[in-house]
Specification:
The protein is α/β, with parallel strands linked by helices. The protein has 12 helices and 11 strands. Strands 1, 2, 3, 4, 5 and 11 form a 6-stranded mixed beta sheet that branches.
């Protein structure tokens, strides 16, 4: 059986899926047609129900939970891994002053409407309503070119913004951790509920095996990871993996599920997302 699979070209995803798609583990009769897209494109594909299995942001998951169920493996959660709100250093005093005004007109670039980053921005700074969607990798240059006032950055840009003369206004991950006491849920891997339950469970099992293989053989997928990381320095590439791939990526466990449930409960109460009638998770075997 061939299944469609979408994930990003970022090092954390290529690290996780290398063994699965390159036959380094027994795939139990499944094969995969892979689509590489940025997270917001994957979110949009999930909204349209296009893929059998896909990476998406947890914010987007709230809008497709009737179609998709969350796997126990492959998620990106953790402490100190959240999005950063940044600006140009020379603008920091003006930015801080304007953030105190109720009718704030600062233009903020976001990496997508349905990203968890944008959800957290709305919780921390509800006054920032002038938002411009942008591919995450273009946000730093837009700030440097004075096209926007603020930028919400994710992924490897956490490691590059300071060298470009940009300034951290707030670490939204740290904000979430203090606010909730939980790890921050960024993205997860979901499977289409229309697939037979035994196939959903098999996918759940195989993704975990793929992550476990990657941890046991961290250099095995280096060429695949480097190919899709493009010009990224190898040290940055591995920092990226270390930041976003951890014990929650192997198995959400009690604490991981608590973090996700807390995020969804708060978002539902604040009417940021719709109420969800189904269980979020793949039914265990």
């Amino acid at each position: 059986m061939e299944l469609t699979l979408g994930f990003s070209p970022c090092p954390n995803d290529t690290f996780i899926f290398d063994a699965l798609i390159h036959g380094k583990i027994d795939t139990e009769g499944l094969s995969f047609k892979v689509f590489f897209d940025d997270v917001e494109t994957l979110n949009q594909k999930a909204l349209r129900g296009e893929l059998d299995i896909t990476k998406l942001s947890f914010h987007a998951f709230a809008y497709v939970a009737e179609k998709y169920a969350l796997l126990d493996a492959g998620s990106a959660l953790g402490f100190g891994v959240g999005p950063l709100l940044i600006c140009k250093k020379e603008n920091i005093e003006r930015i801080k002053s304007e953030l105190q005004t109720p009718n704030c007109k600062l233009v903020t670039a976001i990496p997508g409407k349905y990203t968890t980053a944008n959800f957290l921005l709305g919780v921390a700074y509800p006054q920032l309503t002038e938002k411009q969607e942008m591919v995450f990798s273009d946000i730093e240059d837009a700030l440097l070119n004075n096209e926007i006032d603020l930028g919400l950055i994710i992924h490897e840009n956490r490691f590059t913004y300071e060298a470009k003369g940009l300034y951290k206004v707030m670490d939204l991950g740290a904000y979430w951790e203090e606010f909730s006491g939980c790890a921050i849920p960024l993205g997860g891997i979901v499977v289409n509920r229309n697939l037979p339950l035994d196939v959903q469970q098999k996918v759940n099992r195989l993704v975990r095996k793929s992550v476990e293989f990657a941890f046991a053989n961290p250099k095995s997928g280096i060429e695949f990871i480097r190919e899709h990381a493009q010009a990224m320095d190898e040290a940055v590439m591995y920092k990226h993996i270390e930041l976003y791939v951890n014990q929650y990526s192997v198995n959400l466990g009690i604490e991981g599920r608590k973090a996700i449930d807390t995020l969804f409960d708060i978002a539902t109460k604040n009417e940021v997302i719709p109420k969800i009638s189904k269980s979020l998770y793949v039914v265990p075997k």
